């Protein structure tokens, strides 16, 4: 009998031990998996239990939480001007969060370690947990002007504006856009259906942030970088330096020579550098690129921040000049074609660096973080990313870019009473589609407050037309300049 009891006791102990092992395994090893499982309804309801902080910019509320007084879905996210700021705020859905909503999620939902003191005080006073508020650098007037002007073109594209002296992002618009309210509802099935519609393969991809998450051939806007490398290579050079400007540039190892825009001549075969930039001639800058060589061009590009990991705090796709190939490829890359690929943000940084006496500031979107009582938790500190060119070279480039607006291809960017600098661009695309239209700019030239990059995808009216940044993109930049500089 004792033997039977002993065996039963051992069996019970063994089962109890296995039970404890299983409990610890589930709570320890498998906890994160179960916590993150989409079937975990507790996790789903918890997302709506906390009042997330507001996202604001310039005194305007971009995102807030509405108290529904529902026991399951207590706080639902609202975006008062959803499509206007969609690629800034992102969205907070039943299962994920994007853009600022995602990158600052732990601050917005109150779980960040930076809010430990605030949570402790709230626990002591019995107040419910609230998330921190995130104030952005966006200028609402600039954002609205950029959105309306780009939408008026009827095209897809991107507009980004920076404060050249600090790196603060003043406007960030990507079209097509979407309404984040449609992705922030409490019905996961409805949200999933809408999400699938917006991400449909072959569709317009409205969730794509074209400012930071896609790269494009920059076209002739890149000639300011080639000009910068040329001026930095010899400090005695300047806007009036004579450069070769053949009607067609003979490229080695190929029968496909490099023509000027529309096959036109650029002066009488030799022109001043400023004239070449004003008229956006291809052959002088292709020749300059070949003469400088790949290594010097690549060195100059890196000084403008190309290849540097960037986050604003959203991650930014890296721009790229392309791999080292032959001289013909280098000539094409030096006028913004071939494998030269830039984000609109990177091109705005190039314009801003020239405007800011040669210094490129690290771009940022978050201005200040405050807790639910308004106390500051963190505040932006402008940071110099690199010195792209000397102050002397920057002054020469500004002079030439002002001349482009006053006497060249960018006359539609002129703002009465303001000296504007800029550079147009027309970037050829594949498959016979119309070219992209570009424009980069800054103003006022003597004390810049804003630098802009505008991209209009396939900016010509119809296939076969030659779009120019001066006709399509420059007026969009003008609208943003006027919004920011209006007193």
Please tell me about this protein's structure.
It is a single chain. This protein has 18 helices and 19 strands. It has 487 residues and is an alpha+beta fold. The chain has a six-stranded mixed beta sheet with strand order 3-2-1-4-14-15. Strands 6-5-19-18-17 form a five-stranded antiparallel beta sheet. It has a two-stranded antiparallel sheet with strand order 7-10. Strand 8 and strand 9 (258-259) form a beta hairpin. It is elongated and about 110 Å long. It starts with a helix and ends with a helix. Residues 461-466 have low confidence and may be disordered.
Biggest sheet overview = 6 strands, mixed
Enumerate the strands of the largest sheet in spatial order, edge to edge or round the barrel. 3-2-1-4-14-15
| Structural class category | alpha+beta
Strand-residue fraction? Answer: 15-25%
Helix content: 25-40%
Overall shape: it is elongated
Task: Work out the radius of gyration.
Answer: 28 Å
Low-confidence stretches: 461-466
Terminus-to-terminus distance = 99 Å
Average predicted confidence as pLDDT? 89
Let me know the number of strands: 19
Annotation field: number of helices? 18
Keywords:
single chain, 487 residues, alpha+beta, 6-stranded mixed beta sheet, 5-stranded antiparallel beta sheet, 18 helices, 37% helix
Brief rundown of the structure:
The protein is of the alpha+beta class and 487 residues long. It has 18 helices and 19 strands. A hairpin with a 5-residue loop joins strand 14 (366-370) and strand 15.
